[in-house]
Amino acid sequence: MTLRTKPGAAPLEDQIFVSLLKAADALASEVDQFIKANGLTSAQYNVMRILRGAGPDGLPCNTIGERMISRDPDMTRLLDRMEKRELITRERQTEDRRVVKARITDEGLKLLKKMDAPIRELHKSQFAHMTSARLKSLMDLLSEVAAHKPE
Amino acid sequence: MTLRTKPGAAPLEDQIFVSLLKAADALASEVDQFIKANGLTSAQYNVMRILRGAGPDGLPCNTIGERMISRDPDMTRLLDRMEKRELITRERQTEDRRVVKARITDEGLKLLKKMDAPIRELHKSQFAHMTSARLKSLMDLLSEVAAHKPE
DNA sequence: TGACAATAGTTGTTTACACGACTATTATGT
DNA sequence: ACATAATAGTCGTGTAAACAACTATTGTCA
User: What pTM, to 2 d.p., does this model score?
Assistant: First the structure.
């Protein structure tokens, strides 16, 4: 009887799955703390960064969803809350009246800008114990993981 | 003026952060689908695996929390729902009457066992496009990431 | 040994998530 | 041109998440 792995030892794929999720959760939790301290949820912060990246033209709701880290199944009310706080504006298009485009407000931009440096510093500190070569390697492997498409 | 990175290009740490979270989300979503099809949430599934690993002695609630992939801030009601469905039992200890130990039931074990093989196959398929050497490398780097402790 | 701190869980309450059904508008195919 | 499908977003509803305040029990040390 030949075994590739010790009986009882989890297969490498399982270990990676768990480690990846735990690492993501640990890193995200730290950032969340900071984001929450600024009165945002991570989903809201994510949307604002996407809208800033999109520029003054704004983006349709579903495109925002596609670009988010973890897709929100209820974009409408996520944007509702952000609009109420004047972080974004929404406007139904005239060319295609099905589409509603969202844009970030000046107030939203200001809040984002305030958070930029601390977030960058936090990310740097999270990986400060790793060499640059190891980080490049990790980035490379994560891209390879992402190449897997479900279905 | 010397720049380490192109202006406008996100620092490597930021890219890794986003890639790690996106990868984790994509992988977890696939598994979640299967877990939900079996009537569980991923938190419930996670708790059940932890309790199976703990054996017949069970575990105190807070220890379960520590071992979870993403710590649930409301263990009591998570376990409430699982107890109601007879996936686990709970019993207050007599030595230390503050402690409530949870154990997995036979029904819970049966459900877990039914899911074992499909989950393992799913994980294998998620990483099937990567060589074993690359996977080892990834596991190694993820352990290194986890070495960072906040605060 | 008695006050105070620490630990383990529970509960109240507000808010957000998640699933699906629904409306409106535009594209398609015969 | 018209029925049908596809797309974009909204809304109703039950459930769960999140945060804090609370009870009960045990540990600490002055």
Answer: 0.89
Helix axes B12-37, A106-126, angle to 10 degrees: 90
Q: 3-class SS at A103? A: strand
Q: Judge: A19–B150 Cβ closer than 8 Å, yes or no.
A: no
**Chain-centre distance of CA A61, in angstroms?**
16
Question: How many Å apart are CA B130 and CA B128, to the nearest integer?
Answer: 5
Strand B59-60 to B100-104 pairing: antiparallel
Covered bases, chain C (protein CB within 7 Å): 7-12, 16-20, 24-27
Per-residue pLDDT of chain A (151 residues; tens, 9 = 90+): 555 555 667 899 999 999 999 999 999 999 998 998 888 999 999 999 999 999 999 999 999 999 999 888 889 999 999 999 999 999 999 999 999 999 999 999 999 999 999 999 999 999 999 999 999 999 999 999 999 876 5
Q: Quick check: A121 and A138 in contact, CB under 8 A?
A: no
Q: Are B13 and A126 inside 8 Å of each other by CB?
A: yes
Listing DSSP states for B33-81 in one string gives HHHHHTT--HHHHHHHHHHHHH-TT-EEHHHHHHHSSS--S-HHHHHHH
